[in-house]
Amino acid sequence: xxxxxxxxxxxxxVRVSHQPRKxxxxxxxHGRVEAxxxxxxxxxxAQPGEFRAPLLGDRRPSDHPPEYRWLCLDHVRAFNAGYNxxxxxxPDEIHAAQRPFAGWERETRAFNATGGADRPPRxxxxxxxxxxxxxxxxxxxxxxxxxGKPLSGKDREAxxxxxxxxxxxxxxxxxxxxxxxxKYHPDRNGGDRSHEGxxxxxxxxxxxxxxxxxxx
Length: 216
Fold this sequence. Notes:
The chain is mostly helical.
């Protein structure tokens, strides 16, 4: 028969923790919001109200924030265990809420030609003395020609290649093209062919803009 040594009524090697047991979750407990002096909303409960729960029967329009009450840990657990989203709804309302596309009926703003930026707000709705809002949208919106002629994305890329302004005319285009050809052509650089890649980009940009309606 084997024997085990006991110390103070416990098997040897067993340690007893003298740390006090925590009755409340620590501050990192999920969903806990401390507020000294706020009690649980459950009648007769004197525990701190640290967990938010929606009011039952709150069916206000979706463009209004829902109302909440604050409960202690035990009462919010009991609330979560018995919560029924469809409580108080008619069969038709339940069916409508269960549709696969429920909640997606509202129109969303489409992306536009500004590279994904939202449409600018109506300036009459804002006071912008430091031009903070206007500067942002001027930076996001691509510059337009004063003569109203349209520029495609490829046109704008070609203008950047040739370092031309958006309002450049056909004469400015030809002049800039001649300057860059002389700069990069091997015959003007003692046979140096290291600039052939840049020269090809210049030629392609010129061909793009020459056929563009903005330079017609």
